Amino acid sequence: MKERTAETRWETYLNPARLPYPFCPGCSHGLVLDHLNAALVRLQLDPRQVVLVSDIGCSGLSDQYFVTNAFHGLHGRSVTYACGIKLANPELKVVVIMGDGGAGIGGHHLINAARRNIGVTVLVLNNFNFGMTGGQHSVTTPHRAVTSTTLEGNLEYPLDLCGLIRASGGSFIVRTTAFDPELADLLAQAIAWEGFAFLDIWELCTAYFVPRNRFSRRALEAALEEMGRGLLHREARPEYSRACREAAASQRGRPTLSPQPIPIRHAGRVERKTSVIVAGAAGQKIRSTATALGRAGMLAGLWVTQRDDYPVTVQTGHSVSEVILSPEEIHYTGIPAPDIVLLLAPEGRKVVGKVLAGLGPGTRLYVRTDLLPLETGAQIVPLDFDRARAGKKDMAMMALAAMLADTGLLPLEALREAVSLGQRPEIVQESLAAIEAGQGLLR
Question: What is the pLDDT, as a whole number, of residue 4?
Answer without folding.
Answer: 54
